[in-house]
């Protein structure tokens, strides 16, 4: 009577060894849950440990920028040079202005620091809805509320 042969034992799988990157890491925002993901340089995509969404990594050398969504206050990352960014959470289209295209002023009522497009004549505070004049007349508006 023939003796059945046992299958060859499979060797244990080798542990995963990531490609050598000299410890260099980069960051991007998860396309699913918007958490910040850290990944080794050279990766082409990253799987989020929280929501399991796979986010594509931009090509090497792509300069990224960040802004906070005006609708839901979610941190958005985008390729530098884009003129607008649509939020994947609330679908608000946000203007993406370069640093030299924006200016800052304190709200004339609550003193909150406001950012506005360079050249604007006034800016409305999202906290107290006060409209602060900017430019030559900004100092007179702030003087009115500083006393």
Category by helix and strand content: mainly beta
Strand order, biggest sheet? Answer: 1-2
For the secondary structure, the number of strands is 12
Strand content: 25-35%
- Number of helical regions: 1
Kindly state the mean pLDDT as a whole number?
Answer: 77
Low-confidence stretches: 136-147
Span of the ends, CA to CA: 107 Å
Largest sheet: 2 strands, antiparallel
Large-scale geometry: elongated
Which range best describes the helical content: under 10%, 10-25%, 25-40%, 40-55%, 55-70% or over 70%? under 10%
Radius of gyration, CA atoms, in whole angstroms: 26 Å
Order of helices and strands: EEEEEEEEEEEEH
Describe the protein.
- The chain has 147 residues and is mainly β.
- The protein has one helix and twelve strands; from the N terminus they run E-E-E-E-E-E-E-E-E-E-E-E-H.
- The protein has a two-stranded antiparallel ribbon with strand order 1-2. Strands 3-4 form a two-stranded antiparallel sheet.
- Strand 11 and strand 12 form a beta hairpin.
- The longest helix is centred in the C-terminal third of the chain and has 9 residues.
- The N and C termini lie far apart (107 Å).
């Amino acid at each position: 009577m023939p003796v059945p042969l046992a299958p060859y034992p499979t060797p244990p799988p080798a542990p995963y060894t990531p490609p050598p990157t000299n410890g260099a890491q980069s960051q991007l925002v998860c396309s699913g849950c918007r958490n910040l993901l850290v990944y080794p340089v050279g990766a082409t995509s990253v799987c989020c440990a929280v929501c399991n969404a796979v986010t594509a990594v931009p090509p090497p050398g792509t300069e990224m920028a960040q802004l906070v969504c005006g609708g839901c206050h979610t941190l958005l990352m985008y390729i530098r040079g884009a003129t607008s960014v649509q939020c994947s959470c609330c679908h608000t289209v946000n203007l993406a202005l370069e640093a030299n295209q924006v200016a800052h002023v304190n709200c004339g009522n609550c003193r909150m620091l406001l950012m506005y497009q360079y050249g604007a004549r006034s800016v409305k505070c999202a906290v107290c809805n006060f409209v602060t004049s900017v430019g030559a007349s900004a100092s007179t508006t702030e003087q009115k509320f500083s006393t």
